[in-house]
Amino acid sequence: MASSKIPFLVIIAVVLLLAIALPAPWECSPKCAGRCSDTQYKKACLTFCNKCCAKCLCVPPGTYGNKGACPCYNNWKTKEGGPKCP
């Protein structure tokens, strides 16, 4: 009986850890607002930043650069090979 509860408890623990570690979608907007605060292309920056945050669950710190802090954000490229994420 006790051995059947162990896998269930492990699954619950993993789900709880993921819920704590990964940012929720509503956390992307304020992070992207900070990331895009210095650009003259705010609408495009916010659109792509939010898309990248939703996929990568990360936004690099600062308004420019620092993409090494979020490998997925850094490695997502356009068809032409340019950076997809601001």
Automatic annotation (TrEMBL):
Name of the protein: Gibberellin regulated protein
Alphabetized PANTHER family for the sequence: EXTENSIN, PROLINE-RICH PROTEIN, GIBBERELLIN-STIMULATED PROTEIN
Secretion signal, residue range per the UniProt entry: 1-23
Record-linked InterPro entries: GASA
Domain of life according to the entry: Eukaryota
Pfam families in the record: GASA
Similarity comment text for this entry: Belongs to the GASA family.
Keyword Cell inner membrane: no
Keywords linked to the UniProt accession: Signal
